[in-house]
Amino acid sequence: MANGQTGGTNAPLKKDFFGHPRGLSTLFFTEFWERFSYYGMRALLVLFLVASVTGENPGLGMTDAMATAIYGIYTFFVYVLALPGGWVADNIWGQRRSVFVGGCIIALGHFTMAAPLIGLPEASTFYLGLAFITIGTGLLKPNVSVMVGGLYPEGGARRDAGFSIFYMGINFGAIFGPTLCSLLGEGYNWHWGFSLAGFGMLVGLIWYKYGEKYLGDIGTFQTNESDEAISKKTRNFYIITAISIAFVGIIAWLMSANALGITLEELARFLGVSVALIAVVYFTYLILDARWIIGVLLFTTVCFIGYTTVLDTDSLLAFQNSILLTVAAFLILNIARVMMPTVQVTLEKKRLMVIFWLF
Known about the structure:
Layout: E1 15-17, E2 20-21, H1 23-50, H2 64-80, H3 82-93, H4 95-113, H5 122-150, H6 156-185, H7 190-210, H8 227-256, H9 264-287, H10 292-310, H11 315-339, H12 347-358
Antiparallel strand pairs: 1-2
Helix pairs in contact: 1-2, 1-5, 1-6, 1-7, 2-5, 2-9, 3-4, 3-5, 4-5, 4-7, 6-7, 9-10, 9-11, 9-12, 10-11
């Protein structure tokens, strides 16, 4: 997510973590414990939702369809929020602060989900905890990887090897988290499992702060913009965040009151399809210009109307096909721009096109 505005290149030269910078161990174990908490909770999520509301270890008693819809919506927001999480780090906070704040919010989310242990309401604390985790993961997940890359300003094979070691931390966390959280959660009490996930994230935060000295200036916020420009971006960010939270809250309230005429399962399928459109809109902002976003959305809308009115296609299938055409049009447009001699496309934007292809 980094665009060159955040530091840095002055990483410590000391190498004592498998021949790599000591800072890699800081990020390795931070990500290990974050993945421990994330996958540990995720392993319990659907099981807790479908478990009977009575018995020795009661859950929320949902149907399989509703539980997996909630699971899908949760993972949708986890990954989509990585986009604004990267923007925040690049433009107002820096990766280092974003990772720490994100980790704190994640831990808060896990402990909120475990709050019924002290007598708080079951359902409301569950959904609030999920919301915290999605926000925190959106801040932490994309930015810790950027900091790993910052440890290797020379790039090349050493950086690839460093990322391989870093991904080992992800995989180890993804193994131990579900194993241990499930033993507590499914075997004894679901909220004990959620608590263990929270304590795992706390350990990661402690390790992160302890090892921060080995990162040099990696991940610190650096920019050539004026304080006034940064303040404006920060203010706009908080305004948009407040509006977005209010919008999601209103939709959730309308869904709970059955006022929208769609089921939770249908909403989950709609959001799943929407991921590709969100990606096109975001890369349009990065590669072209914010003004092009209106054109992208208008193109999708026209395609959708054509499918539903002219071809009489089911709305979800029509939406899916419309987004497919939008992705194709976006690719064709950008390939044409790269090939046209009269259009100057920077190297950074060409690389962003490669990232979009991989995405």
